[in-house]
Amino acid sequence: MCGIVGAVAQRNITPVLVEGLKRLEYRGYDSCGVALHVDGKLQRSRSTSRVVDLESQIGDASLQGFTGIAHTRWATHGAPVSHNAHPHFSPNDEAARIALVHNGIIENHDELRDELRALGYVFTSQTDTEVICHLVDHMYNGDLFDTVQQAVKRLHGAYAIAVFCREEPHRVVAARQGSPLIVGLGEGENFVASDAMALAGTTNQIIYLEEGDVVDLQLARAWIVDADGRAVTREVKTVHAHTGAAELGPYRHYMQKEIFEQPRVIGDTLEGVTGITPDLFGEGAAEVFKKVDRVLILACGTSYYSGMTAKYWIESVAKVQCNVEIASEYRYRDSVPHPNTLVVTISQSGETADTLAALKHARSLGMLHTLTICNVSTSAMVRECALAYITRAGVEVGVASTKAFTTQLAALFLLTLTLAQVNDKLSPDAEAEFLKEMRHLPVAIAAVLALEPQIMAWADDFARKENALFLGRGMHYPIALEGALKLKEISYIHAEAYPAGELKHGPLALVTEEMPVVTIAPNDALLEKLKSNMQEVRARGGQLYVFADVDSRITSGEGLHVIRLPEHYGLLSPILHVVALQLLAYHTALARGTDVDKPRNLAKSVTVE
Ligand code: F6R
């Protein structure tokens, strides 16, 4: 999703802006650009290629300046073409007075565009951003800080913006509402960015702007007012942001690297867990866990599937009612709130707009006990929730989430055990046994990773298909959903997942000899039922690709391909089975030659609705 960097300094700021964009690349983008104040004029460079290409473009044009803004764009309004790339100018010509970058979606852009057109403004892009840029120009009163405070009152929707003006060379003004934005403080220079990582190496003194804040960045000050125009002091935090993408090492793609990192990051996520206690989730968790009698999980995409898996665990082990909701649905539907609910958000990035909005919605309904399972300790999600468990997956670069998912599952299993303990459903023996199994996970996952050559052989078959079905039962149904999501997002093969028992209620009509049907078949209580479902597929000529456990009595035969996972892993089995599915998706995508780490149309951090 879009990323913003801005700076006011007394040195050429281009390298800081370009480096910032490189650090934001992980979010996904389709164009990028930089604008600078150069000798009393606004100048810019934009590209529909990668940030490195923009960098050489800037070098060729010898573009340098002390004040500037930069952007990576993930297209929402208007195609990913150069004239839609940010920064936008107003007027959009040599005489440009205002330069602006934006992350978010302005809902009343049509109405504002009509109004500005009537005033003579000429629009050269399809973006909602150009509307804000002309609006600021139109309202400009000689004081950019004041102008932006007035202008944002006209905007409906979500935005983080950074703007500067030809007439005020040492000033950048930024504002946020619904999209993340931070301020970085330097010595005689100040910065703004979408996240602290963009400024790693430049400053670690970070202010997280709050909803409605507008900031005036000058060389020696960063002055913030809230939505009502009152001066406010926001806490300055020392943030040791990750320095971005790690080295690829021997791997071809970050996704492959991240799949193979799972034994280590699961170990990291469980580090320091010597016993089950509410304290794992933060100060005050013990009282909160005692008060709550149900759980509501809010998340999107892959994180939603980890929540779905946790529902099986929480209800069966802790005996606590658990509902899981897709955040973008929950935030807009009428639901029946219950004050004794533990609201759990799950998010890799901690910045997903829908999940944050769903959290706020739950709070507005009076559900105030909030906990997040999140991979980024400095994110909005962690700041917004009272309690947190930080997964230690490390920076996830591949757009398709892998290690974040399995570390979420590990954290959610800890939550399950904690709720069970609080509710007297966990004996000391059971606790010790579960913890032992959790500690053994890195070894068990490593054994699944060793199946890679067998999975690669299957991937060659899959690469020639255009459709695939995934079947699972019980807590492996969400794993089937996750396997199908991984396959479709990186290989572009249409894939759907069903609870195996649902097959005969409709999807069986799709099964022909051309249809590969991936089946997750752990040796659990549902195995015999699942075998009947597999027969239904074979009887229609469907090709079964079965991930069985070492001790499931399923053997390869005509139209039936079996890979055995080395251990049967009981309740934690989803964590092992999903790793096999990640490898299948990865190698299928590789065989099809897609851009595995940056699949088309997708972004890593989804900060718009
Ligand atoms: C899929 C994927 C997405 C994310 C979703 C939520 O591989 O990565 O479905 O899981 O966009 O993102 P987070 O977890 O950052 O809230």
Could you give the topology of this structure?
Elements: E1 3-8, H1 14-24, E2 31-38, E3 41-47, H2 51-60, E4 67-73, E5 88-90, E6 98-106, H3 109-118, H4 129-139, H5 144-151, E7 157-165, E8 168-177, E9 182-185, E10 190-193, E11 205-208, E12 214-217, E13 222-225, E14 231-232, E15 237-238, H6 254-260, H7 262-270, H8 285-291, E16 294-299, H9 301-318, E17 321-326, H10 327-330, E18 341-347, H11 353-364, E19 369-374, H12 380-384, E20 387-390, H13 403-422, H14 428-449, H15 452-462, E21 467-472, H16 477-491, E22 494-499, E23 516-521, H17 527-539, E24 543-549, E25 560-565, H18 573-592
The structure holds fructose -6-phosphate.
Description of the molecule:
With 609 residues, the chain is of the alpha/beta class. It folds into 3 domains: 3-241, 4-Layer Sandwich (Glutamine Phosphoribosylpyrophosphate, subunit 1, domain 1); 249-439, Glucose-6-phosphate isomerase like protein, domain 1 (Rossmann fold, 3-Layer(aba) Sandwich), CATH 3.40.50; 449-609, 3-Layer(aba) Sandwich (Rossmann fold). It has 18 helices and 25 strands. The strands form 4 sheets. Strands 3-2-4-1-10-9-11-15 form an 8-stranded antiparallel beta sheet, with helices on one face. Strands 5-6-7-8-12-13-14 form a 7-stranded antiparallel beta sheet. Helix 14 packs parallel to helix 18. The longest helix is centred in the C-terminal third of the chain and has 22 residues, at 428-449. The structure holds fructose -6-phosphate. Residues 300-303, 347-349, 352, 355, 400-401, 485, 489, 606 line the site of fructose -6-phosphate.
